[in-house]
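Renewal narrative, Specific Aim 1. Our central claim is that a sequence can be written position by position from structural information alone. The example that follows is taken directly from our test logs and has not been curated for this report. It begins with the structure tokens describing the chain, in the order in which they were read.
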């Protein structure tokens, strides 16, 4: 059987975060042990062979089989306020951020819809922030229409039970680094959209998925669910 391949040439970036709690002295900023967004991309950390986690492997296999011209990259970020500025957002058409953020379920995944204009908390190296992200901007930065469409697509996909995808609107109790990361991602879309007003370029997209801890000792079930969501967002 011949597998139909398309000519999707978009540039896709998938990011996760390293651990941020109990990192020792000095802090091991690149430890990949407790944060599922790191493990499903890189198992216990990046070695010479790169991203070998179950989600990264599935995405690479899917790309090679169905979308060989898609440019797919991965990145892991330390949980520091300054690290957010290192994301090369302008180089990608779609960015999907992954982070740990569900603590009362092993099976609920949140897709963030908009971001809150505030950042607060102490990062992995002890730097604190408590401020508006944009001084003169509204309380919530809404997702643009192309992102809303992607979110709706993902919400209509059936995940393997018992996993469930839930929309999470911007909220004042979600103002740590994940929110700040997504706010800056949505900001970059506004700039990109403004610069493309008179062009026919692809409208860029950015998403944030909050993940639960895994149930048991394997990351495979969680990786499978996240893979299904990501495929719906970008396919």
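The sequence written for that structure reads:
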């Amino acid at each position: 059987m011949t597998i139909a391949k398309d000519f999707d040439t978009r540039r896709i970036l998938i990011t996760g975060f390293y651990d941020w709690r109990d990192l020792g002295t000095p802090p091991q900023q690149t430890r990949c042990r407790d944060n599922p967004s790191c493990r499903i991309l890189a198992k216990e950390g990046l070695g010479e062979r790169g991203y070998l986690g179950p989600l990264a492997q599935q995405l690479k296999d899917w790309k090679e089989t169905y979308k060989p011209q898609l440019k797919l990259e991965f990145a892991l970020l330390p949980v520091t306020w300054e690290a957010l500025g290192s994301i090369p957002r302008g180089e990608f058409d779609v960015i999907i951020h992954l982070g740990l953020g569900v603590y009362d379920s092993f099976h609920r995944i949140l897709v963030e819809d908009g971001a809150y204009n505030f950042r607060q908390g102490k990062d992995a190296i002890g730097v604190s922030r408590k401020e508006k992200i944009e001084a003169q901007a509204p309380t919530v930065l809404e997702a643009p229409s192309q992102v809303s469409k992607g979110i709706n697509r993902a919400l209509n996909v059936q995940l393997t039970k018992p996993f469930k995808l839930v929309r999470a609107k911007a909220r004042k109790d979600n103002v740590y680094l994940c929110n700040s990361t997504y706010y800056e991602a949505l900001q970059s879309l506004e700039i990109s959209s403004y610069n493309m007003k008179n062009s026919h370029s692809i409208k860029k997209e950015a998403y944030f998925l909050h993940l639960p801890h895994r149930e048991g000792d394997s990351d495979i079930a969680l990786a499978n669910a996240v893979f299904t969501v990501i495929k719906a967002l970008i396919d």
